[in-house]
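hey can u check if this looks right to u? its 390 residues, i copy pasted from the old doc so theres a chance i mangled smth
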Amino acid sequence: MAIEVNGAASAGAKGRSGRRWHSRVLLLRTSAILASLILACLVAIALPLTFPGLFVSAQQTAQLEAFFARNHHQQQQNGQASLDVPVTANGSAARLADDAGHTNNWAVLVSASKFWFNYRHMANTLGMYRTVKRLGIPDSHIILMLADDAACNSRNLSPGYVWAEPGRSLDLYGQNVEVDYRGYEVTVEAVLRLLTGRVPLNTPRSKRLESDSRSNVFLYMTGHGGDEFLKFQDYEEISAFDLADAIEQMWEKKRYHELFFMIDTCQANTMYSKIYSPNVIATGSSKKDQNSYSHGTDEELAIAMSDRFTLEILDYMESVNKTSSRSLQDLFDSYDPERIHSDPGVRRDLWDEERRPLNQVKITDFLGGVSQVEVTPAPGSDAWEEEPLM
């Protein structure tokens, strides 16, 4: 009996050994097939590179050589041209432009606050929205960012209305307001992505800043802030460094021609202290260690209706129309610290005043509409046709 058991065990061991040997053979064959496929792929890639004449005709070869020769010549020309372009202090190449070198204007208007008691920040932003729209910038070129929680707030005695002043004579909300980012969509990340163009692919066009190197951009921000920061909805902050780097990305990516930054918050002027990109003019409501004050309390609503700095600007802008020749310098000269209760600031060292003095830069170059069309001759034509078109 013992002999039979041992024999069965021996047979089982041989069976297992045979299966292992068969598996090894199968693995070796599979490896050999994979190696052959890889070698074939490498040969298929290497042959056209080593012997292009076998796969590309002489005519195609000549076309490729001509293409690479043209590219090389163009790169050499670009390299030589780049030597003649001025370089700013931060290393960015300055794009030279004529006095009216922009063909379109964009406005980005940001209210960084929420809650009923910050009614004035929403009113500030809607006031700017009304102004740029009145001066001709279409909604397609305005990005409006609001918490949008005041018009229909249960404490609003006039549901659906946002008033500019305690007299309640001017409704800023109306039926034609197009809010692009509202509520919790208004975040630091959303602002930075908007400015730099790094929005998700599925972002609708109404939420994109589609500016280019011929665009003048007006950026307005209001809310609660401090030394080099602006709070967003009492949850997060954007710093002066964040803003400066975003504007530099805009410049490097040719997302603006000239940029006008305006901010109304406590210690507002510190928010533009870190900007280092060319063609930027900035203004703020208060210097470091100063507050920015509200104005016009409505006794029934029990809230302030606006901030003094923004109200000062909006009052001035009421005298500006689409054809006005008033300049940015005229606007800055209108600031009255006694009425504003703080010291507004203007930063102009990033602006080339030799090329474009601020007293020659129209307010509407940033806050107004532009209807310029650039027409060039058709390819191959040497001159314009002098006869009138019938």
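The chain has a mean pLDDT of 84.
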